[in-house]
Amino acid sequence: MWNVEWPAHKPPRTMPEPRITFSGVGKRYGKLWALRGVDCTFHAGEVVMLIGPNASGKTTLIKNVLGLVHPSVGRITIGDTVIDAEGRPADPTYRANIGYMPQISQFPASLTIGHLFEMMADVRHLGPGEPDDRLIADLGLDKQLDKRLGTLSGGTRQKVSAVLACRTRPSILVMDEPTAGLDPLSSRRVLAEADRVRSAGGTVLITSHLMEEVESLADRVAYLEEGTLRFLLPVREILEATGTDRLAKALPVMLERAKEHATI
Question: Which of 42, 59, 76, 112 gets the highest tally of CB atoms within 10 A of its CB?
Fold first, then answer.
């Protein structure tokens, strides 16, 4: 990470529970390192906003958390599960506790919304009353359960994706551009669901280019560039250090300052 002189702050009296820990993680595709030497911990009961330019490593970091890829070097600890360069964990059931809302979802075109929800409940072995279906009604999907997935607009597909990610009460929620294509009311409702997961002790990772929508929700910001985690800091400290009141204003100031203090 860049070595930046930030204002001293007092750590909390009780350190939060580590939920996801990256230890020296690197991921290589051929000769290209998509992640380099990532060391960080994401805690229970927090929302972390992942930001950075295109091809910065955000997607690769997410894929490592989801178990879609594994590190080329280093290790990732998720709860009691360790994932390292040897390959996938022997017990992949940890994924059952992860909810994922991708930016672009691929659904079977001939299935209806209702059938998809039923199928996913069966896959997760959920009993009666276990799925949390408030989000279905709040997003207006309860009146569209008979619609086929292949006929849905982009915004409606995004709503379906949000329900699939959140209705099983995951302990880890990963949201990739969750408000893309949503109307303002639906955007607020989806982000409120992320807040609910955090309040229940979950860990939420969000990537978004719309900082004004997410900044009030985020506890910390992780900035990646060229596969390197440049910093992971509380939103409050970022604002205080730059003398600004919004992340959109603070980040350009902070990045320029960070580069001036970068160590080689």
Answer: 42
